[in-house]
Amino acid sequence: MSSSLALLVLLAAASAPILAVGVSPAVNPRVLPAAASSNDTLQRGIVATNQTANSVTSTLHIISDLVRDLNTCTGYYTTMAETVAAALDDLHAGRVVNATDKLNDALGAPSDCDILLSGVGVIGKVDRNPIRKENGENEKLVKLAINILNPPRS
């Protein structure tokens, strides 16, 4: 719950008008020369904090997109796991053709997940694919099983 509250506070701070403008209305631009040095420091601090808020907000958007996409990939892989388990059942029952068909159905999940996480065709999408290696390995393993069960003919 506290992480949700912290996230809400960060989002509110990042979108607050004071940060969007970059200068706090509480800062009086007409300062005395003796106070100019501290005002410059304050202004630089405001600019740096504003940049930090923008960066944090951008990172939150990337994380939100990644979580959404990983949840979609979880669905792809859940379906794939069920399909591969059904293919194993078919193999244990001697139904090689049925198993091969199921494995062919399962083949798309890793590449669908890669496409989603890589943002192919999405303008402005940041490529954040933390499971690219695993997707490639799973695709190769399914292809290997298919080729063993139904070898390519020369």
From TrEMBL:
UniProt keyword annotations, A-Z: Signal
GO terms classed as biological process: plant-type cell wall modification
GO molecular function: enzyme inhibitor activity
GO cellular component entries: plant-type cell wall
Superkingdom of the source species: Eukaryota
Signal peptide bounds: 1-20
InterPro entries, A to Z: Invertase/methylesterase_inhib (IPR035513)
Protein name: Uncharacterized protein
Organism encoding this protein: Triticum aestivum (Wheat)
